[in-house]
TrEMBL record:
Residues 9-146 form the Transposase IS200-like domain. SUPFAM superfamilies: Transposase IS200-like (SSF143422). Signal peptide: none annotated. This is Transposase. InterPro entries: RAYT_transposase, Transposase_17, Transposase_17_sf. Pfam families: Y1_Tnp.
Length: 180
């Protein structure tokens, strides 16, 4: 088995991405983004996750982070948020896409190799070790410019669900550690 996309360095800083099944635009509602933020805050406090940068897009999430047990932290994060997001979608009376999203998430589970009840996230998280300053700068710029490139905002720091505000000198939604 390849080690290309494994978090093998417990002291390493990694760029990782989580994508929703079928790239469904789930994070268009604030309450779903808040589930992600609250879960990340829990991992920061209880799971020894260090968060350097983050950005929630409509159908995926980027993090630059580290943890001595990154794989298990990510596994737990994805498992918990999948359950919470699925439940939130089911219980949201304002969710006009409930039937479609439920079908999509259940189909993802049925089609998975484990034949799960449902699957919210695509498998894996594609960790990329950021082992030099040029790579750190490239991924940090990519992550923060993602909402600008998508045409949602004109400046990275205008995107609420991102650490770009912190890097612009303002206070963001989650506590971050600046990369030295």
């Amino acid at each position: 088995m390849s080690d290309k996309y494994k978090a093998n360095d417990p002291a390493g800083i990694y760029f990782i991405t989580f994508s929703v099944v079928q790239w469904a635009d789930v994070f268009t509602r604030r309450e779903y983004c808040e589930i992600i933020c609250n879960s990340l805050a829990y991992c920061l406090k209880e799971k020894n996750l260090t968060l350097y940068a983050w950005c929630i897009m409509t159908n995926h999430l980027h993090l630059i982070c580290s943890s001595p047990m990154l794989a298990s932290t990510i596994r737990d994060f994805k498992k918990y948020t999948a359950k919470e997001l699925y439940r939130a979608i089911q219980q949201n009376p304002q969710e006009s896409r409930k039937g479609w999203l439920s079908w999509l998430i259940k189909s993802g589970g049925e089609l998975s190799s484990k034949h799960e009840e449902y699957r919210f996230w695509q498998p894996g998280y594609h960790p990329i070790l950021l082992d030099n300053n040029a790579l750190v700068d490239q991924k940090l710029d990519y992550l923060h410019r993602n909402p600008v490139t998508a045409g949602f905002v004109e400046e990275p720091e205008h995107w609420f669900y991102s650490s770009a505000r912190d890097y612009a000198g303002d206070h963001g939604r989650l506590p971050i550690t600046f990369i030295q």
